[in-house]
Amino acid sequence: MEALQPVQQQKANRVITVLSVAIPVAVAVLLGIRQKVNLGTWTTYLPHLNGIINSITSVLLLLGFYFIRQKNVLAHKRTMLAAFTFGSLFLVSYVLYHLTNESTPFGGEGWVRPVYYFLLVSHIVLSVVVVWFVLRAVYFALSGQISKHKQTVKYAFPIWLYVSVTGVIVYLMIKPYYIH
């Protein structure tokens, strides 16, 4: 693939940085909206969909890792783009749920409570951080900058996998407290 010109590289970096800030800020603003939008009771099922999406994303990430270790670049590329697509679908579904429903309080007690909150807080913090890494990794891969892609995924992959897996664990821990 042809090398990118410095101006193209600067534009791409700017877009990635803006998105990496704008996405978490937009999510935080939407979560803070007190007046919820009524789109019907079907939105109460979105957390369950999100648990499925996070599970699929986790499996796709592991498959992508497996494929690249097997030097199957095409399967790796397809799998990782699918993981990116599912991650994007998760984000839309997550925002839609919180735009239409109050957050569900965790009802667990005892030792499980601090475990839940540790997983939740680490999941949230790293989900903000991972956006920048994932966008860069995808950009570098699609623009043929494989050495930069490899450098970026050293951080992107474990963080993204942690965020996906803890998303599933947090969902399973809070699932009994969802009201339909």
TrEMBL record:
Entry annotated with the keyword Membrane: yes
Protein name: DUF420 domain-containing protein
Keyword Amino-acid biosynthesis annotated: no
InterPro entries, sorted: DUF420
Domain of life: Bacteria
Pfam families (UniProt xref): DUF420
Transmembrane segments: 12-33, 45-68, 80-100, 115-135, 155-174
Keywords: Membrane, Transmembrane, Transmembrane helix
